Amino acid sequence: MHDKKDFLLLPLIEEFLVSRATRKPSPHTLAAYRRDLLAVARLVAEDPTTPLPLAALPLDALTPRSLRSAFARFAADRAAASVYRAWSTWNGFFGFLVADGVVPGNPMPAVDKPVVPPPPPKPLRGERTPEELLDAVVRSDRRQRDPWPERDVAVLALALCAGLRLAEMLALRVGSLAGRAGERRVDVAGKGGRARTIPIEPELDGVIVAYLESRRRRFGARTVRPDSALLVDRYGDPLRRGGLQYLVRSCYRRAGILDRVPRGAQLHALRHTFATRLAEDGASASEIMRLLGHASLATSQNYIEVTAAQQRAAVRANRTNRALGRLLATGGG
């Protein structure tokens, strides 16, 4: 184990960022890592008891006490989500130093972090919007260069009726669909390595079967082997992230519902619609958690709480309730 006094902080931060670059994060994400690391480091360096230039700040200045003080000042004018993100970045940084043998342990568990509530769901807006979307896409659009409604409906249905994430859909193989008629299921390689199995109802099964039959007609039976990608582009090649995102957005455009898609949601709006309808139809948080592959029950509970709030708002808006309120206000009997 190295002596921490041998190390200055800034070069170690650069080493950490280089190591993170191999994961291919976006430039925005890398910039956020750097910004969070430098902001807290600067607060440690500016501590009035032992002020130092940031470039001269040694690693051994980062004690649980100095980090707690720095994070307290960092949190003063920032949102909880920003503080949590910075805490996670520093936690990852110290994990990197421990793995590299630079420090014996990670001090971040001694630094409190805020509890950040899960973001609110972003389903498609409008009670009938999912049905309108499917109705529009199932019809071949002559304006398309190479219309393939069977494939497009299968993509939408996997998100709307099985709640799959974008990456999960791209990872599907033809052999991911298993089981006999009436007991069909799809095996999903979920986020964080959490595999799950989702039951497939006959309607969704029929959509997928129709898509695979259309694919055989286009490209031949050899393209639908069990190890083949389930979702392909119009050339028969596996769909990629950008292609899938473009496909979903083009479906929204063709259905004329772009104004009903929450900003930044795109395909995730379909997954949120699936979860929201589960909650509306009485599914428990644990059932939603299993079907959507959530890591935390709190995320699943969020759908139920939002649905309950919407129901209460609908009841509050009832005209009879408002009339009753006026009656009570005037003392009428």
What does the secondary structure layout of this molecule look like, with pairings?
Elements: H1 9-21, H2 27-45, H3 64-75, H4 80-99, H5 129-138, H6 149-162, H7 166-171, E1 177-178, E2 185-188, E3 196-199, H8 202-219, H9 241-255, H10 267-280, H11 285-292, H12 297-316, H13 319-330
Antiparallel strand pairs: 1-2, 2-3
Helix pairs in contact: 1-2, 2-3, 2-4, 5-6, 5-9, 6-8, 6-10, 10-12, 11-12
How does this model look, in words?
Keywords: DNA integration, DNA recombination, DNA-binding. InterPro entries: CB, DNA_brk_join_enz, Integrase-like_cat_sf, Integrase_catalytic, Integrase_recombinase_N, Integrase_SAM-like_N, Tyrosine_recombinase_XerCD. By secondary structure, this protein is mostly helical. It has two domains: 107 residues, DNA polymerase, domain 1, CATH 1.10.150.130; 134 residues, Orthogonal Bundle (hpI Integrase, Chain A), CATH 1.10.443.10. The protein contains 13 helices and three strands. The termini are far apart. The mean pLDDT is 87.
What characteristics describe this protein?
333 residues, mainly alpha, DNA polymerase, domain 1, hpI Integrase, Chain A, three-stranded antiparallel beta sheet, 3 strands
